[in-house]
Amino acid sequence: MLLQNNLVARTDLLTPCSRWVSPETDKHQFDLYSFVAALPHDQEPDDDDSIEVSSTGWFPPSLILDGWRAGLLRLVIPTWAHMLFLSEHTTVKSLLDTLQNPSMDPVLGDPIHDPRYQEFLHLHPTKNAFNPHHHTTTVSYSIDEVHYLIAHNADITCHLATRSFAPRDALTDATYLREHLGEYGRAAMELGRARYTAARKQLPADWIVCHESAQQATPLPVARVRAARLARTLGPDARIHDITCSIGTEGHAPVAAGIQYFGSDLDPSRVIMARHNLGATFSHRERCE
């Protein structure tokens, strides 16, 4: 193609960045050399008709990492490591200056003892970090994020109503939320996805939920049947203790049935969500030993 169009590959513009070699036990062997280059003027990504990709666009490396942490994207460890490296630089010059004398010593196999990759391996404890299809973890919220979501629930809900949360729009949605909510955009993105799941289980639309807890939540009709059975069996002055209350899904129906409900969970962020979701009638324990 280059010869037919009288073109040459400008390899002089490429700067070596890293080398990764797959584990010997991996089914698909590769020896990967990665390069970086300054973006040419007026360069655009391939159009959406390409058979190589599902969608195209320019995104900050830090946003790619946010999407990965929120469970929106699957990344193999070399791609994750490159995104992390790129996110540490705010200018092209800073990046290229760092790579003036790059080490091209290969990273071999799964670098489980290398501290640089512990975040990836901690969130994705798999046998093969080169296979993205093993990675199914999701990330919940920090306590600070939960307090932010509660304090700005109405405003965040308005923003979420403008997003589709379709897989093809994941990064576009994440970009929008990050632009409007700053560092809390990732948490808002997870809240939007979680509420989509929670709605199918008939949970209240204004609840604060994370994706994992929404997936694990008991559908409200089922919780109501259980609450009615408890009320009949234990009587009107019943008190129950839910030792794994999570976000309070099992507590909503008993409280409505007049049962005094106590909840506890090892995750303090979920206890805060449960307290908010169930209102002043909810008693809690910060930890359950």
Please write out the topology.
Blueprint lengths: L14 E7 L9 E6 L24 H9 L7 H11 L4 H7 L8 E2 L9 H6 L19 H9 L1 H8 L9 H12 L3 H16 L10 H6 L3 H15 L4 E4 L6 H8 L3 E5 L3 H11 L4 E3 L4
Parallel strand pairs: 1-3, 4-5, 5-6
Antiparallel strand pairs: 1-2
Helix pairs in contact: 1-2, 1-7, 5-12, 7-8, 10-11
Largest sheet: 3 strands, mixed
Judging from the principal axes of the Cα atoms, what is the shape?
elongated
Tally of helical segments: 12
Give the termini distance in whole angstroms: 67 Å
Give the strand line-up of the largest sheet.
Answer: 2-1-3
Description of the molecule:
This protein has 12 helices and 6 strands. It has helices spanning about 60-70, 75-85, 90-100, 120-125, 145-150, 155-160, 170-180, 185-200, 210-215, 220-235, 250-255, 270-280, and strands at about 15-20, 30-35, 105-110, 240, 260-265, 285. About 40% of the residues lie in helices and about 10% in strands. The strands form 2 sheets. It has a 3-stranded mixed beta sheet with strand order 2-1-3, with no helix packed on it. The model is unreliable at about 125-140 and about 280-289 (pLDDT under 50). Helix 1 (about 60-70) packs across helix 7 and helix 5 (about 145-150) runs parallel beside helix 12 (about 270-280). It is elongated, with a radius of gyration of 24 Å. The protein has about 290 residues and is mainly alpha-helical.
